[in-house]
Amino acid sequence: MERRTKENPWKLKTPPLSSEYEMYLDEKDGVEIIVCTVGKTVLYYDARIIKDLHTMLKDHGDWMLLGSKDEKAEAKEGTVEFWGRSLENPIGGWYGLKKGLRGRVGMYIPPLMEALGLAEVEHNKRNNRMKAI
Question: What are 20-78's pLDDT values in tens digits?
């Protein structure tokens, strides 16, 4: 995987192509993380999500709804967002690491997966889906 830094981040757009944000890889407390900066908001995700999500999508074998929700909102079962916080995923819970900002896996991770050549992502105004390449 290409390694991007704070000085050379991935410049991405949300699936509906309505907002820009940046991501890069870093380390926090001995764990590789993805740092996601949206305006002045900074979110952290466990970097294992890239491999784990790709594997899950390959096993799923078809398009999957993204279902982006913030941490306080309940995610719809069968979506990428639901999987990203499920006790059934490989890490047994949240890939989001920053309390209060652990959600939005379905909004910010899919475009990164697309940029890495690991997934196809739809870019409609609503109800976008993704699938593994």
Answer: 999 999 999 998 999 999 999 999 999 999 999 999 999 999 999 999 999 999 999 99
In a domain, 20, yes or no: yes
- Spatial neighbors of 132 by CB under 8 A, at least 6 apart, are 54, 57, 58, 60, 118, 119
The verdict on residue 56 lying in a domain is yes
Handedness of CA 38, 91, 3, 6 (dihedral sign): positive
Q: What is the pLDDT of residue 3?
A: 81
Residue range 102-125, pLDDT digits in tens: 999 999 999 999 999 999 999 999
Tell me if residue 130 falls in helix, strand or coil: strand
Could you tell me if residue 130 is inside a domain?
Answer: no
Print the domain residue range for 67.
Answer: 10-123
Query: How many domains does the structure of the chain reveal?
Result: 1
Kindly state whether residue 4 falls inside one of the protein's structural domains. no
Return the amino acid letter for 16. P
Which residue from 78, 70, 59 is spatially nearest to 129, judged by alpha carbons? 78
